[in-house]
Amino acid sequence: MQKYNNISINRFSVAPMLGWTDQHCNYFHRRLSTKTLLHTEMITTNAILYSKKNNLIEYNPIEQPIAIQLAGSNPRDFARCAKLVENLGYSEININIGCPSNRVQNANFGACLMTKPHLVVNCILAIKSIVDIPVTVKTRIGVDNQNSEQFLMKFISTVSEKAKCKKFTIHAREAWLNGLNPKENRNIPPLNYSKVYQLKKKFPHLIIILNGGIKTLNESLQHLKYLDGVMIGREAYKNPYMLSEVEKKIFNMNQLRKKRYQIIEEMYPYIEATLSTGGNLGQITRHMLGLFKNKPGSKYWRRYISENAYKKNAGIEVIQRALKKIQNI
């Protein structure tokens, strides 16, 4: 994996997605690609420090390389969480400066922190004072009426220079905090890739990763002509088999593409281990529903798994039955 100043560039990554990229999802995605950088869901510092759940930041070592995305605004809390994260062996700590939800705004973190670059600096410096793993930022190109190129450049300049942050993932949309919900913020603000390209030209010494609206690996390759990396979100989740071509197309590796059936069979030991400790089959298979997207039998696969995986005592026989059916279609 190529590095710049000891920070992995990560030419391709799957975005952190709240409610989606949990441990089961990341384990599944790692079956498809070994080089892709994976992310946890966004996890708040308060949840880590004060939640009764003690497994929020656990992961399976096979998921590496994996970054944890943290959200918060208290430098001391960030530092406390960062030490826990480093001890678990995460590859990177990514700070969320892009989430536009009301809950996040009320708690004073996410996209609203774009207007408080010095607080962001203090948070990053607090983390760096206690851990050695890379600290990176995921943000937007603007927030509400503060959407000029100068505003974005100043934010990046302040955070990169004062906090020595070298890697930024930029969602190429503004965050409209007034009037739009998180789902609308993923689609309504227009994409502006050229602003991200300009950012790279302005700061050639920084690692700039593009996120937002990218649907194919061919599109990714076009962006990689101008930027250091690309991040795909919902398309990688809804059509996960695209990840099986990442090694060949993005990293130019001469690696055979796994068949869908092989990927499913590789999941069996993990599924059985999870069920043996009280897990539910549907918690895992919900991430696998898109594996046969655009292939014969895909609707049957989704329907059968969805209808049966959450039943009491459901096991891998549910998957085997669905697989046998679509193999005969």
Description:
The protein folds into 2 domains: 3-249, TIM Barrel (Alpha-Beta Barrel), CATH 3.20.20.70; 260-327, Four Helix Bundle (Hemerythrin (Met), subunit A) (Up-down Bundle), CATH 1.20.120. Helices cover 41% and strands 16% of the residues. It contains 15 helices and 10 strands. The protein has helices at 23-32, 45-50, 75-88, 102-106, 117-128, 149-162, 182-185, 193-202, 217-223, 234-238, 246-249, 260-276, 281-285, 298-308, 316-327, and strands spanning 3-4, 7-8, 12-14, 38-44, 66-71, 92-97, 135-143, 167-175, 207-211, 229-232. The strands form 2 sheets. The protein has an 8-stranded parallel beta sheet with strand order 3-10-9-8-7-6-5-4. It has a two-stranded antiparallel ribbon with strand order 1-2. Strand 5 (66-71), helix 3 and strand 6 form a beta-alpha-beta unit. The longest helix is centred in the C-terminal third of the chain and has 17 residues, at 260-276. The mean pLDDT is 93.
What descriptors fit this protein?
329 residues; alpha/beta; TIM Barrel; Four Helix Bundle (Hemerythrin (Met), subunit A); 2 domains; eight-stranded parallel sheet; two-stranded antiparallel sheet; 10 strands; 16% strand; globular; tRNA-dihydrouridine20 synthase activity; tRNA binding; EC 1.3.1.91
* Helical segment count: 15
Overall shape: it is globular
| β-strand number | 10
**CATH class call of the largest domain:** Alpha Beta
- Uncertain segments are none
User: What spatial order of strands do you see in the largest sheet?
Assistant: 3-10-9-8-7-6-5-4
Q: By helix and strand content, what is the structural category?
A: alpha/beta
Note the run of SSEs as H and E. Answer: EEEHEHEHEHHEHEHHEHEHHHHHH
EC number: 1.3.1.91
Pfam families: Dus
Organism: Candidatus Photodesmus katoptron Akat1
GO molecular function, one term: flavin adenine dinucleotide binding
